[in-house]
Amino acid sequence: MTCSYAGVVTDAPVPRDTPLPPRTPDLESLRLLVLVAELESLGRAAGRLGISQPSASRRLTTLERGLGLVLVDRTRRGSRLTLAGRVVAGHARRVLDELDDLLAGAGRLRDRREAELRVAASLTIAEYLLPAWIGELRARRPELYIGLRVTNSAHVPELVESGEADIGFIEGPHLARVMSTRQVAEDRLVVVADPGHPWARRREPLTARELSRTPLVLRESGSGTRQTLDRALHLAGCSRARALVELGSTTAVRGTVVAGTGPAVLSELAVRRDLDDGLLIAVEVAGVDLTRELRAVWPTGRRLVGPAAELVAVARRTRTARRAAGPSAG
């Protein structure tokens, strides 16, 4: 063994009479010692723990050797702790009490986790998909409290990683941080305009360049809709979308388009009824892929369990059912 004295390193061996450092005792040995202190009998302490007296004796001997102390005087009248044994037993009792508190606290946290689910979601998912997912989960878990934070796709991962949300749902193609993800649904963006807009009367599709050069009513930067549009235009070899008006919610964008301010690109989920009612007109675009994946996100390395895992499973089952039913089920 290499030793150092006053800055000088030497390979001189450690003397044999150097005491070895104490070994960390196991919890069961500490429990045994505390019971011997309380019952003043090794046999009764062993019986309380459901082990034989010889096993208990060997366990105490191992504990004494590990600590380098004599803890128990064994006599025909019984087993009594030495002075050192009483001091160690006092420490052991506090350690075991702290352990009991730890286990009880963990149990309370586990119970709360099973009774509460905090969700963060982007606006489109929160408005048009999550209500059905939450409804199905609550039908099976009526005691479950669910809290929902609605924000844009860029902010959802922050809430999940900080622990403010147990699970997140995003619609954007980009993640600013490394996270575990799982696809739960698909969505398609559509270019929409009011019936009086020139695009509503077009016979041929828009080009990607026309879309990129025309000022649009847009969601704010960081939203999944804005990210998807910019990415689709970039892949088509065009610049990012130009903003005529920039708004912080899908509902605000939709209302602005209906009012005739200008065209927009929105989730089909958000404008399906307006398209059916003729309030908005869908404008075809050539050469631009506006489909996107909707994903659940959670911290990398953390296993998805409890209500969070159940909600993701509900979302994925809904996606499978929609696929089986065909396009008209959307």
Automatic annotation (TrEMBL):
InterPro entries from the UniProt entry: LysR_HTH_N (IPR000847), LysR_subst-bd (IPR005119), WH-like_DNA-bd_sf (IPR036388), WH_DNA-bd_sf (IPR036390)
In terms of Gene3D superfamilies, this protein maps to: Periplasmic binding protein-like II, Winged helix-like DNA-binding domain superfamily/Winged helix DNA-binding domain
Name of the molecule in the record: LysR substrate-binding domain-containing protein
Instruction: Please provide an example of a Pfam family that matches this protein in its UniProt record.
Output: LysR_substrate
Q: Which key words are in the record?
A: DNA-binding, Transcription, Transcription regulation
Q: Which residues form the HTH lysR-type domain?
A: 25-82
Give the SUPFAM superfamilies listed for this entry.
Answer: Periplasmic binding protein-like II (SSF53850), Winged helix' DNA-binding domain (SSF46785)
Native organism is Streptomyces griseoaurantiacus
Q: This protein's superkingdom?
A: Bacteria
Lineage per the UniProt record:
Bacteria, Bacillati, Actinomycetota, Actinomycetes, Kitasatosporales
Q: Does the keyword Chloroplast apply?
A: no
Instruction: Name the family.
Output: Belongs to the LysR transcriptional regulatory family.
